[in-house]
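My hope is that you will study the protein record below before we discuss the fold together.
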Amino acid sequence: MSPIRQNPPPIRSDLPQEAVDRPLSAFARDYAAGELVPRHAHGRAQLLYATRGVMRITTDEAGFIVPPLHALWMPAGAPHEVATEGGVAMRALFLRADAAAAGPGATTVLAVSALLRELILAACAEPLEWDPAGRGGHLAALILDEIARAPSLPFRVPEPRDPRLRRLTAALRAAPSSSRTLEEFAALAGASPRTLERRFRAETGLSFARWRQTLRLAEAAARLASGETPARAAAAVGYASAPAFGAAFRAAFGITPGAARG
């Protein structure tokens, strides 16, 4: 994950989807595995959705894992970068300020219903200047209704700013199954365990143990949504006990690991 930078990102304005005089416009593009879209921002809010592949989206405050059947709501002007796992078929929406009122006030992962998925795909087939009184207008109205009622999901993993903590979190993101303790990470981070724990709580609102669990469950959810079995997903993120993984997953997401499998 890239370091957090405080300088303002470039606002992209080269996309016709951001200039068209419609409440929303659709954007379709396929990305190769491992592709990175550098840090930038948009003048309009976005709903970032992919019919295939996993997106890892980094803002200045957190990292978000967005598997299929989920989308990331991104307010206008929010700096972010996008990394792809596997080939990603992005089908996104840009929303004018009036239409963006349908979405959350902050960057949020949303569950995408079967209806919203089909509406997004249908919007991608419409011309940019669709007829407000015709099919395009009907699609836009339904899309805004579905966004407003879409459940939010805890796929947000807060990112600390302290460079000592970032060395630690980078190591865990690279190997979420690692069983290294905070004491063992102290040498890597260059700070005492007590200092690390205190800074973790101050910068992320979570203890080190809770942050690691949040990361593991978000990673596991992405694996499940991509079709991996619960047993393999649990092992990949460091859960030796299937019941413990199932209990933690249900507590975080309200469904069983099996139900989350794509």
